[in-house]
Amino acid sequence: MNPTNETPQKKLFKYLKNVVPPEKNLADCVSEWLHVSSDSAYRRIRGETPLTTDELMVIAEATGLSANDLLGVTRKGAVLFESTRAGTADLEFTTYLKQIHRQLSILDALEEKEIMYCSKDLPIFHFFMYPELMAFKFHFWMQIIVQQPSYQDKAFAMEMPEANAQQLMQQAAALYTNIPGTEIWNTESISSSLFQIEYYRTAGLFANAADIRALYSQLQEMIFFVGRQAELATKFLPDQNPATRPRNFQLFYNQVCLSDNTMLANTPEGRVAVINYGVLNYLTCHDQEFCAHVAHEVDNIIKRSTKLSDGNMRHRTMFFNAINEKINRYKKLV
Q1: Which of 13, 14, 99, 315 is the most buried (most CB within 10 A)?
Q2: Last residue of a domain, one of 78, 94, 124
């Protein structure tokens, strides 16, 4: 999972494999980009035929990357990240969701895979399963984060995202439940959602108080459901029978520190690190040395955490009761 003695060229093509669309073969792309035979493309991918400078420039143009970016993949100490931003319009937000869906689809298609999630905020995938929360989060993202003009000064009244966005969220949630995963939470992981609802309440951005109470109730429902998944050590959707699902979920409580919304995907071909920034935006890295450092840090956090899934009812009950009490304190303000 962490290959050693990779040549710079092999490292470059390993990175490019994650750049091309999942439905395309890297060798076919290289053959098309460089106007060489399939055999010649494979020889370059395997490192048997060195890339020329001209070929590197052609690949850079074809992938939309700069030559400096591609050289950075091979330079010692340099780490290349891909940035995924939420955008500034509804269409771009849908594109953002498509990118999440695409990456989860790639993982889901692998026979062996795992996602480790160090959570500062509640993982976004859980919100995708709840219509009211999803509607509020979408409104908040569009108004405060993306600053979409049509949402400015617009009160929230339980309007749902457009149908395509809803479908993408639901599909992404389903894919996430298929992928074995470990999540590390803190009792403060709920705080950002509570602050967002409270901000809207005090700013007069709710159409009526009933909507606020409905959001808090569904937030409690979501927390209860995650607790149920932890109890069964199984990821599943609210309308699914957990007995038909694999045991693929571990939840830990870290009370030492609040993490930073870092995801690490483990696959047979290597690790992928995803670093969140600016609430909705994230950076993706395929550099194996960097990912190994992230994996080491995640392992250290787990060692200092309490396992809440698959048994350990006392600690799990205490943890989720503490979160529920936080929600109730805000709910009483309505």
Answers
A1: 13
A2: 78
